[in-house]
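Researcher: Go.
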Amino acid sequence: MNTARGEHDSPVPTRPSTGWVWLSAAWAVALVSTFAALFIGEVMGMTPCQLCWYQRILMFPLAVILGMAAFGNDRRGAVYAFPLALGGVAVAGYHTALIAGWVPQWRIPCGAGPSCSDQKLVILGDIQIPWLSLIAFAAIVALLLVYLRRTRS
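Model: Structure:
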């Protein structure tokens, strides 16, 4: 017992957990990506292609799940979000390969509506939206891996 302040000394010094920073960063990436997708679709009026819809289906829940996990510092939220982020990497990676011409034309999944292989929206010169989506999903996976390793018991 620390007699000067009336506090008890802990046998093991405690260190403040910084794991929530990684989880909050993953949530920030998901939140920015969600708002960017909504801005492109609702404000700019661009209809998403089929693969873009799949990426939205995987990204939008990440903004909710990771936000709840970050505020509650809940490790389970990161565990639940991880498969969604991996699925997003797979779909965005396939979409990126499709745009780059690495996927044969007969494997293009688009039906009616905008073409998945013909992206009209580019930003910062020549960066296409599926590339940004791939970067966002990969960043979320990396941040969740760091968080899950640091909070492993």
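Model: The longest strand covers residues 122-123.
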